[in-house]
Amino acid sequence: QVQLVESGGGSVRAGGSLRLSCAASRIISAHNVMGWYRQAPGKQRDVVALVSSTGDTHFGDGVEGRFTISRDNTGTTVHLQMNNLKPEDTAVYYCYIIDATTMAKYWGQGTQVTVSL
User: Fold this and answer.
1) What one-character DSSP code corresponds to residue 54?
2) Is residue 29 scored above 90 in pLDDT?
3) What DSSP string runs through 68-100?
């Protein structure tokens, strides 16, 4: 059983920054995609940012240029640096890892990010 432990959520004023981190309890695969999704109340869960084991990145709508994603070489830790936060970034943020070999998916428990005016 793999556990993903998230940290770094919280409350911030618009224009502020937060850094989310996610650590997996073990190495899942040498080939995986790690990243973050978010879900605001009453809305579907959407991709925020993803990074592959080869370093390719993908960003969801409205965050590119403000958010950056990085991962460590072991493929067990992923970070999301969020700058110039906006109230519309308010959501529960979920860490996500998919094993590119088996297509097994893993989710964290979620961490709340609240951005106020």
Assistant:
1) T
2) no
3) EEEE-TTSSEEEEEE-S--GGG-EEEEEEEEET
Question: What would the two tokens of residue 1 be?
Answer: 């059983």
Q: Are strands 111-116 and 10-13 parallel, antiparallel or unpaired?
A: parallel
* Backbone torsions φ then ψ of 99, nearest 5 degrees: -75, 115
Q: C-alpha distances in angstroms, 35 versus 12, 68, 112?
A: 22, 11, 16
Q: For residue 64, what are the CA distances in angstroms to 41, 57, 75, 109?
A: 22, 10, 22, 24
Q: CA angle 86-20-62, nearest 5°?
A: 35
* Distance between CA atoms of residues 10 and 64, nearest Å: 21
pLDDT at 87 over 90: yes
Q: Calculate the alpha carbon distances from 73 to 32, 53, 76 in Å.
A: 12, 8, 8
Partners of 18 in beta bridges: 82
The mean pLDDT value of the chain amounts to 95
Query: Which residue, among 70, 100, 76, has the nearest Cα to 27 in the 3D structure?
Result: 76
β-bridge mates for residue 79, sequence order: 21, 70
- Name the amino acid, one letter, at 96: Y
